[in-house]
Flavin-containing monooxygenase (Phoenix dactylifera), 272 residues
Amino acid sequence: FLEFFPTPSPPRFGTPAWRITAPVNLHRGEITTIRLLAKPVVSTPFLYLREFCQWFGLRELIRFNTRVDYVGMVGSAESGDKMKWIVRSKEKKCGKVMEEIFDAVVVATGHYSQPRMPNIKGMDVWTRKQIHSHVYRVPEPHRDEVVVVVGSSLSGQDISLELATVAKEVHISSKSLEITEGLSKVISKYQNLHLHLQIESLCEDGQVLFVDGSSVIADSIIYCTGYSYSLPFLDTKGMIVVDDDRVGPLYEHTFPPLLAPSLSFFMIHKYY
Ligand SMILES: Cc1cc2nc3c(=O)[nH]c(=O)nc-3n(C[C@H](O)[C@H](O)[C@H](O)COP(=O)(O)OP(=O)(O)OC[C@H]3O[C@@H](n4cnc5c(N)ncnc54)[C@H](O)[C@@H]3O)c2cc1C
């Protein structure tokens, strides 16, 4: 997008230039594109998305409040292009169940909804607060607390930074002490932000023991340990499996060789 419109004021919807360049053709991540576009065009991403839907006539194609509970094959993979899919969905408000046949299914259910929790000795006996980053919203509930943040990737870094402004101490537990230059700079900026290796075990009295021999008594632990893939609605008779936190087999993270083009996945590859 920037290549096409290097000026600070890109065209609005409806201009010839916009029509020529649909954002999906230009970037690997649609959301990234939306963010790049959103700022100059309208004031908020919500308004941008609404305008995007209107312009491309998408609004009437969306069924809101409808959960897909089952997607299964009709016919066999050998039938190739003629393959069809049965899709069972449920309207959340009135509970109406629908069963329909489609020529193709694109799975775009995201991969940031099924929290992945680590397996740490003592997790079951540690009685204080333990949450996953998925439910973290704001730092205030942790004011004056000693907090252990498990994981030093993007969520762990963001959340630790926020917490450092209100919490008494923030202890980041990382798989390695070889951290990015950015994180290292941040840690040196805050006196209450500390880096440790992995957690060895958790004790009933609130102690958190790290493998490097250090320990703290913490009030909360926030697991910033990522997400697992989950496709509970998809029945491909074993042709697509979630194994070792991978979905496959998929060509280019998108097309299952045996089932494409009638089945495809969007954004299975994790950038975060
Ligand atoms: C903390 C965090 C920060 C991030 N920051 C950035 C960032 O700064 N920049 C960036 O580019 N990306 C960022 N990302 C990544 C970005 O959010 C994802 O890449 C993006 O949301 C993926 O879009 P998606 O449409 O594939 O999935 P989602 O946005 O997860 O959308 C999936 C949709 O499918 C629906 N759904 C799920 N199951 C069903 C079902 N059975 N039936 C019907 N509907 C269903 C869900 O309700 C949801 O609406 C961040 C992610 C996280 C977790």
